[in-house]
Amino acid sequence: MSEERFTFTIDGVEIEAVAGQTIIQACDAAGVYIPRLCHHPDLEPAGHCRVCTCKIDGRRSSACAMPAAPGMSVESETAELNADRRTLIEMLFVEGNHFCPTCERSGDCELQALGYRLGLAAPTLPYLWQRRELDATHPDVAIDRNRCILCSRCIRASRMVDGKSVFGLERRGIGMRLNISAPTLGETALAAVDKAVHVCPVGCIVVKRSGFLTPPGRRRFDRAPIGAEIEARRHRAKESG
Amino acid sequence: MAGTDPEPPTDGPAAAAVVDAVVKRFGRDRFRLMDIVQAVQQRLGWLSDPTLSAIAASLGVPAVDVADMASFYAFLNRERKGRFHIRLSKSPVSLMQGAADVARAFAEAAGAAIGETSPDGDFTVEWTSDIGMADQEPSALINGAAFAALSPPAARAIVAALRRSAAANALPLFPGGDAQAAAAALAPLRSSLAQAGPILLQRGDGGEGLRAALRLAPAEIIAELTRSRLRGRGGAGFPTGLKWKLCRQSIGGGHPVVCNADEGEPGTFKDRVLLAETPDLVFDGMTIAGYALGARHGLLYLRGEYAHLWKSLHARLQDRRRLGLLGDKACGRAGFDFDIRIQLGAGAYICGEESALIESLEGKRGAPRDRPPFPTRRGYLRQPTVIDNVETFACVVRIMEHGAEEFARRGTRESTGTKLLSVSGDCPRPGVYEVDFGMTVNDLLDLVAAPEAAFVQVGGPSGQCVAPKDYGRRIAFEDLATAGAIMVFGPGRDVLEVARQFTEFFVDESCGWCTPCRVGTTLLRMNLEKILAGRGALADVAALEALGNTVARTSRCGLGQTAANPILSTLRNFPQAYEARLRPDPFLPRATLEEALAEAIEIRGRAPAAEEGA
To answer: Which of A59, B75, B414, B472 is deepest in the core (most CB within 10 A)?
Structure first.
């Protein structure tokens, strides 16, 4: 069975896509990186962070949720869109309580890495200093909601991949928080090997006794900026083509 | 009081039995979770963690799903509340008509600080977002019953009357008997109808529109609607004929018809008037849609604040079933099996957004969906769904009755027909007015006898703040598009204080799903408050505008996309109001040194010593 193939353009570059792909999936495959936070390639899109907002035929929409269509014209790397992305990243920094220098995920954190990639030098927005709960009752996993960006990756992974529904959202608006299925994390069915534990883009869900196995300076985004692994696909394709 | 009455069961075997009975009553259907949690709360007074776990276990769904939903809605109690739950309507209009004094009177009489429950367990006093009575503020809901035109003496009398009541349990959603009686005696609603127009609110409705529609083939009804150029009355203005056509073309099971009666925009109350005064007009419209789309199910999503209308609406539906207008072979048509169910909301402005409304109908948090697909392709229970505003359904009936040409003769090219406007604020004749589309703000202000207005908020917080220089503009989709909320502000009102209150409304009502709305609304409020506190520099205004634009550009749904409008439209139309508050300094910190140190000083018990020479 042959799949329906078509092309669209992003920032003037022609991309080949397969019917059913979202814009971000097609661009990832073609080696064009669109900044994103809540999207994860193994999970259904959720549209929380809005960092992947692109202009699609002149209208803004999130690239993670929008199906690719023949002849679409997508703008991504524009000054205005990147300025909005920078503000969104900054909002997440001031919403939570993020202390990069003491965070065990520093250098391996997608929020921090996007801050660097988008040129977020110093916050201009006021910090909210909200109270966020920690939970270290589980023998192997800890959650520190100070670092939670409410991306719902763990929620989606726990439900769809692990089949456990350990995580959920609760409340609304600025009071929204990550909830768990029991009074404490230790009482939930969570296991350290669960997908939900390993999709956290920040240092909210961490595996105990593993934080410094890779020393700072040799971590994922110490070696290359976020998105580089996707962009490398395009460079490889160019060289081989 | 609390000592003499038995405590309602909150967990343990009694609560478990309540949960089980309720879940069974709703067929163990997880999509009826809204009804289930409301019915359980009705019995138990509140929703404890064990109660939610019991509901989840009984339904066989994850506990986090039930907690997610139950923690989302303002009218679902996650903690124990008083026997009488007083919810005061908070909006610029209620506040300028004395709601703060009424709140103080309630709090003092009830012995409960605002936001808290009295020690005797009798009263909870809270603010809530606009309850749809802007023409008779200050207003409040007490156990769901509506109290209008309140004053401090009335508040004290109401508390005294309710204190004598023997009702053991708070009935926080459906109006309780004692609260209803007190409302009727001490703070009754008056009719909000100020001017009935030629189309919607004419008298002598006898179902002629419905009969005329049934004489047509479904496709002919849609063609007639298309000819009328009717556009959705909820504010977005999507062509109704096209919407119905798209839904009819979509492949799928039920094609349910949903009436959006989640009239949450502050300053709007025209749907309440339609539902209270001409409910059959609305049900006729839904039935026509059911016939045109081949639907079996109609759903009226009634905002939780309008629970006081539930009984009479429910009774009307029963009458219609008796008359054969609903049920199997509805209206005597073989093959047309159509019925309507009322789904009560639970306090969430976002549920007026159609995809959030569908999520809520399905028993989930009211978080909007990504589109595409649109509801006409995949809506309620993944079926192609038509969702229209209350007023739109009323228009459909009149178009069937009088014909598309007659309807389109009124209004403007882009906005045919008449529009119901909810007028409130500084004007001697607030209420619902039916006017032709295209009326200028000036003409409207003359009509409602408020020619002195200093500014007019058209379309509620998500709309525009219109300055006198623009009073020549027209109320129509092609100019000032609105679902009909008109708030009039007289000379001496502070336009930025109103903008601040509207911004706070969005902070309260953001669903939290997406970053720009969840965080951005709070940041907008903080940045505006900085300027209002006299600590704003010129750079703060630029930063406020940039932040507002980012929130507007990147938010996921209409709520976030319009949440910055109170700020952006006052920046555009009242720049002098901002300039008057700015300081000449190039930069001012958010807090003074004294404020920043206040907590530390309190902990240490002494102020820091001033530096030498300082």
So the answer is: B75
- Relative to beta strand B145-147, strand A59-62 is unpaired
Cα separation of B192 and B133, whole Å?
Answer: 9
Per-residue pLDDT of chain A (241 residues; tens, 9 = 90+): 457 999 999 999 999 999 999 999 999 999 999 999 999 999 999 999 999 999 999 999 999 999 999 999 999 999 999 999 999 999 999 999 999 999 999 999 999 999 999 999 888 899 999 999 999 999 999 999 999 999 999 999 999 999 999 999 999 999 999 999 999 999 999 999 999 999 999 999 999 999 999 999 999 999 999 999 999 998 777 777 5
Please give the residue of chain A at the shortest CA–CA distance from B63: A181
Report the distance separating Cα A35 and Cα B282, nearest Å: 47
Which pTM was predicted? 0.95
Cβ pair B256, B121 in contact under 8 A: no
Q: How many residues are given for chain B?
A: 614
Measure the CA–CA gap between B281 and B313, rounded to whole angstroms: 12
Q: Which residues contact A58 (CB under 8 A, 6 or more apart)?
A: none
Phi, psi of B308 (to 5 degrees): -65, -10
What's chain A's length in residues?
Answer: 241
- Of the CA atoms within 13 Å of residue B408, those in its CB half-sphere come to 14
Residues of chain B in contact with residue A159, where contact means CB-CB under 8 angstroms, are 62
Residue B61's CB is within 10 A of a number of other CB atoms, namely: 16
Which SS3 state, helix, strand or coil, does residue B274 take?
helix
Q: Regarding beta strands B455-458 and B464-466, do their DSSP bridges make them parallel or antiparallel, or are they unpaired?
A: antiparallel
B279-293 vs B310-322: helix crossing angle, rounded to 10: 60
Tens-digit pLDDT profile for residues B349-361: 999 999 999 999 9
Q: Please answer yes or no on whether A165 and B511 come within 8 Å at the CB atom.
A: no
Peptide bond into A183 cis (omega under 30): no
Strands A134-135, A141-144: pairing kind: antiparallel
Percent of chain B with pLDDT over 90: 83
Residue matched to tokens 């023949």? A70
CB-closest option in A124, A172, A183 to B510:
A172
Burial class of A223 by CB neighbour count within 10 A (0 to 12, 13 to 18, 19+):
exposed
Distant-in-sequence, close-in-space partners of B97: CB < 8 Å, separation ≥ 6: B137, B138
Q: E strands within A11-96?
A: 13-18, 53-56, 59-62, 73-75
Best residue of A61, A174, A181, A184 to probe chain B, by most B CBs closer than 10 Å: A174
Question: A125 vs B68: CB contact, 8 Å cut-off?
Answer: no
Phi, psi of A208 (to 5 degrees): -65, 150
Asked if A13 reaches chain B (Cβ–Cβ under 8 Å), the answer is no
ipTM for the whole complex: 0.96
Does A7 lie at the interface with B, CB-CB under 8 angstroms? Answer: no
Q: Mutation test of the interface with chain B: which of A160, A172, A187, choosing the one with the most B Cβ atoms within 10 A?
A: A172
Dihedral sign, Cα of residue B225, residue B228, residue B234, residue B238? positive
β-pairing, B116-117 vs A177-180, is unpaired
Instruction: For residue A92, report the phi and psi dihedrals to the nearest 5 degrees.
Output: -65, -35
| Buried/exposed A128-146: b ≥16 CB within 10 Å, e otherwise | eeeebeebeebebbbbbbb
pLDDT digits (tens, 9 = 90+) for B328-381: 999 999 999 999 999 999 999 999 999 999 999 999 999 999 888 999 999 999
Q: With an 8 Å Cβ cutoff, are B512 and A172 in contact?
A: yes
Closest chain A residue by Cα to residue B65: A168
